[in-house]
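Support request, please re-run this one:
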Amino acid sequence: MPTASRAATASRAAAVSRSAAATAAWRQRDRLPRYWFANRLVLTLSGQRPVHTLLGHALPAAYDQLIELAPRAPLRPAGTRATAPVVRRCGEYQPRHGVIEAFARIASGDRLSALAFRLELGADARWRCAAIDLGPLA
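Re-run finished. Output below.
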């Protein structure tokens, strides 16, 4: 096999390996409650998914907030060629056991938005969204 062909094959293999590693990292990240909820909230608040997909994952007050916010799709990309919003980074603060106060940076093209939400651990060991804050967007 010519040297150039070997180099091209090695380059493709390295690219596939990097892609597989990135995909695995995204999957691992999505297993964290704050990222799982941030991604689902972004899909709902950008109009990509209906609000009822979060029905069993939100407490009544938070679900009511979602019902009010979702029709306006405050995280919908501006313009027809804008990219879909993506969770860039999501952090958390745990004021006590069973409570996560999370904050996320949402990117859509060159636009950056903030999303804050509170998660509470139920008696059934499932996390549920208890509150949502989009700041001045909402």
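Helices lie at 3-30, 33-45, 60-69. Residues 119 and 129 are 4 Å apart (CA to CA).
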